[in-house]
Design goal:
This protein is mainly alpha-helical and 192 residues long. The protein is built from seven helices and no strands. The longest helix has 34 residues, at 86-119.
Amino acid sequence: GLTYLSAIVTGLVLCNLVNAGSKGAGLTFTARSLAWGAAGLICAWPVVQAAGIGFSMLHEYRTGTEITQQAAHPTLQLLLDNQNNPWAWSIAILAIIGAPVVEEIMYRGFLQSAILKLTGKPWLSIVITSGLLMGAHMLPNTNIPWYSAATVGVLGLCMGIAFERTKDIGVPITMHVLFNLANVVLAVMFVK
């Protein structure tokens, strides 16, 4: 918890420093960010879900085995296994809010912006950044299957497009928070 908190504070301080020196960097968060982020997730949700279903079907086809795990993310599985434990809910809240803030500041706010500045090609910056986000979710210590990480990559593409179009870091942060929240709510309600 303390790691997430310090990462969020550090990210927000860096965003403020960059914004102070470079107006229009897009590293702000406003009420408008919430509205555009919610609209962005509404548009992205069917695309991300279709990709997730497609990647899962590809995995089952290639391996000949059915996916039997309840949740594709260890934090979500921890919550499902310990729904009456307040610590599990604390971890889930960090995953719902903390991870999106840190990841979006890092991947969209700084990395995607830096790649765009280097290449001058928005699509290239979006694709590279989304690929790196997907790769980070595939690291051995994450225990996230490739088909779930690939789905995160598609979400990353959607959030990258939203950031490129709005130049507002609050938009992909809101999309990411709402995506994580929706997954927790759906899992708790429907996975038994």
